[in-house]
Amino acid sequence: MSNLSDFFRYFDLIAALKLTFAGGLKIKNNKFAILVVLTTGIEKA
């Protein structure tokens, strides 16, 4: 069950990063921001 809590913590991290990127990139580059977040997450995992 520790994996589940890790997943939710990771999900919160992604949500925060998406908001940060979306704000910084004026939202029009939101797809790029999500791609960066996902790529970073994959490298981390």
UniProtKB/TrEMBL annotation:
Origin: domain of life: Bacteria
Protein name from the UniProt record: Uncharacterized protein
Lineage, highest ranks first: Bacteria, Bacillati, Cyanobacteriota, Cyanophyceae, Oscillatoriophycideae
